[in-house]
Amino acid sequence: MEIIIQPSSEAATDIAARIIARLLREKPGAVLGLATGSTPLLLYKKLVGMNLDWSGITTFNLDEYIGLPREHPQSYHTFMWENLFRHVNIAQENVHIPDGNAKDIPRFCSEYEDKIRAVGGIDLQVLGIGTDGHIGFNEPTSSLASRTRIKTLTRQTHADNARFFGKDEAVPNHVITMGIGTIMETRQNILLAFGKHKARAVSEMVEGPVTSINPASILQMHPVVKVCLDEPAASELQRAEYFRWVYDNKPKWQEF
Ligand code: PGA
Question: Do residues 201 and 129 lie in contact, with contact meaning Cβ atoms separated by under 8 Å?
């Protein structure tokens, strides 16, 4: 894991945007894995502003609520089209977001995995992290070998996400999420985390044992993971000074 600590979420996002922009320029047929939530909002805004060519890019989103209409303001379909896709020249048929209204969910999930395989796998996956250490919606105790499937949100995630919904609106309990095994097959991951409320989950992910209690900790076993943090999210890392030292002393050819 490469831990990149920046003075602000803006600066941390800038690094992620530069890495993704380089991939899109170097590989016009790249396959991106994308995330939703508040964390990647600025990333998508920056990517939109970079005038990149998305015509050959394929995307797969991590997750979606089950039972929420696609047009609902809080569906991840709406989120992705509003915040990224409608601002770039991506082909609609190259966008993949789990269908939370699929009639046969297990079948949909297995076909989602087939589609990822059929395009040669995901080159770069964008990840956030939940306050409970989830990646995608793989909640604590998720199988570290899991594939795309239905999950029930924990009460904590349910409460964390309720802020996006209206006061009297029901927050779905169930989601479709790529599995941890699915995420572990991507070629590269960039995980973004901002704010003090993420600090514990981040320190457990980076410095704790690999455990399904903090599902993100499995990323210790992935060969290419960049973790882009602001200072508050890095505030519980015991080895923060070491991570800063590594970053400040990167060989020229390794710089972003
Ligand atoms: P957030 O969610 O970006 O809204 O903090 C992150 C996540 O739950 O993965």
Answer: yes
Whether the full predicted model's pTM is greater than 0.90, yes or no, is yes
Q: Which of 201, 245, 231, 243 is nearest to 219 (CA)?
A: 201
Nearest Cα residue to atom 8 of ligand 1: 130
Query: Is the shortest distance between the CB of 128 and ligand 1 below 6 Å?
Result: yes
For residue range 244-254, what is the model confidence (pLDDT) as tens digits? 999 999 998 88
In the beta sheet, which residues pair with residue 5? Answer: 229
Nearest atom in ligand 1 to 129's CA: 9
Instruction: Give how far Cα 135 sits from Cα of 29, 98, 215, Å.
Output: 25, 15, 7
Domains and CATH numbers, the chain: 7-185 (3.40.50.1360)
Cβ 62 under 6 angstroms from ligand 1 = no
Pairing state between β 189-193 and 124-127 = parallel
